[in-house]
Specification:
With about 190 residues, this protein is α+β, with helices and mostly antiparallel strands. The chain has a domain of about 60 residues: Head domain of nucleotide exchange factor GrpE (Nucleotide Exchange Factor Grpe, Chain A, domain 2, Roll), CATH 2.30.22. The chain has three helices and six strands. A three-stranded antiparallel β-sheet has the order 1-4-5. A hairpin with a 2-residue loop joins β4 and β5. α2 runs antiparallel to α3. The model has no long low-confidence stretch (mean pLDDT about 85).
């Protein structure tokens, strides 16, 4: 048997050489920094000018849309009132016909047109305030007189001189009313002393 000894042979692979550290770029000069800052400032100023212009365009568009809404908001009401005006014109033409002196017929026609008019406005949120027999409410009624009334308790509306109106819950005009001050006081008896 042959005795062969194995000897450890050193690893003969070439050793890796470390890579040189990346060279740091030279620091920018002051002129380059100023130029970069000026470019950033110019870009920011450009964005600012665009934002201001966009805001001004938005403001103008909003004002224009608001004006259009104001101008045409009543279009639906006006369209519904046109037939009422047509009926008033027909009634007036009928009243002006020679030989037509029937006041009751004319009054009935005007009453029908008035009901049509109230109905049309009611569909658009107008509500009539007619508080006869109700307690006086200074938020809805304008008291023009206090009169004694034996039939009505004090502070009760006894007469409506002018109807009031509200639109979708907002008071447009208070009702002008006469309010009871209760039964009339008996005149004091004269005393002889």
């Amino acid at each position: 048997m042959s005795d062969t000894s194995q000897t450890d042979t050193p690893n003969t692979a070439p050793a890796a050489t470390p890579e040189p550290a990346p060279a740091t770029p030279p620091a920018p000069s002051a002129d380059e920094l100023i130029a970069a800052a000026r470019a950033d400032a110019a870009a920011a100023h450009e964005r600012y000018l665009r934002a201001v212009a966009d805001m001004e365009n938005y403001r103008k568009r909003t004002l224009r849309e608001k004006d259009e809404l104001r101008q045409f908001a009543a279009a639906g009401v006006m369209e519904d009132l046109i037939p009422v005006m047509d009926n008033l014109a027909l009634g007036l033409a009928a009243a002006r016909q020679p030989g037509n002196t029937d006041a009751k017929t004319i009054a009935d026609g005007v009453a029908m047109v008035l009901e049509q008019f109230k109905s049309t406005l009611g569909r658009h949120g107008l509500k009539e305030i007619n508080p006869v027999g109700q307690p006086f409410d200074p938020n809805l009624h304008d008291c023009i007189s206090h009169l004694p009334d034996a039939q009505a308790p004090a502070e009760t509306v006894t007469q409506v001189v002018r109807l009031g109106y509200s639109l979708n819950g907002r008071l447009l005009r208070p009702a002008s009313v006469v309010v009871s001050s209760g039964p009339a006081a008996a005149p004091a008896a004269e005393t002889n002393s």
